[in-house]
Design brief:
By secondary structure, this protein is α/β, with parallel strands linked by helices. It has a domain at 39-106. It is built from 3 helices and 3 strands. It has helices at 50-64, 73-76, 84-97; strands at 39-44, 69-71, 102-106. Strands 2-1-3 form a 3-stranded parallel beta sheet. The longest helix is centred in the middle third of the chain and has 15 residues, at 50-64. It is elongated and about 75 Å long.
């Protein structure tokens, strides 16, 4: 079957709707087997009640894992908005500086 085109009809190039990958895939890091005596970082975009549920998570995790410590979300700043790229770029250095073993990442819905 041939497509019928009209002289004044616009033509468009076809594009793949999913786009190209933005980064190379890699295997995930190993899970932390036991959170006892580990340092947990909290990152958040300051949306959807993180100020309520992060304290609850801290309390409950502290009951289960002796010696657990937290680097709270305010250390990392609001990872959403005008300064997002700048703040996100600083996260790896902050994780290293605070010797963070694992991260709870809170993203508002």
């Amino acid at each position: 079957m041939t497509a019928v085109t009209h002289v004044n009809e616009p033509q468009y190039e076809v594009v793949w709707p999913l786009g190209k990958p933005a980064y190379a895939a890699r295997a995930p890091n190993e899970r932390v087997a036991d959170l006892s005596s580990k340092v947990i970082g909290e990152t958040w975009d300051y949306l959807f009640r993180g100020e309520e549920w992060f304290p609850i998570l801290r309390e409950e995790l502290s009951k289960r894992y002796p010696g657990i410590q937290f680097v709270t979300y305010d250390t990392f700043g609001n990872l959403h908005g005008l300064n997002q790229r700048e703040l996100v770029a600083k996260v790896p250095a902050l994780l290293k500086e605070h010797k963070v073993d694992a991260v709870i990442s809170g993203i508002g819905a």
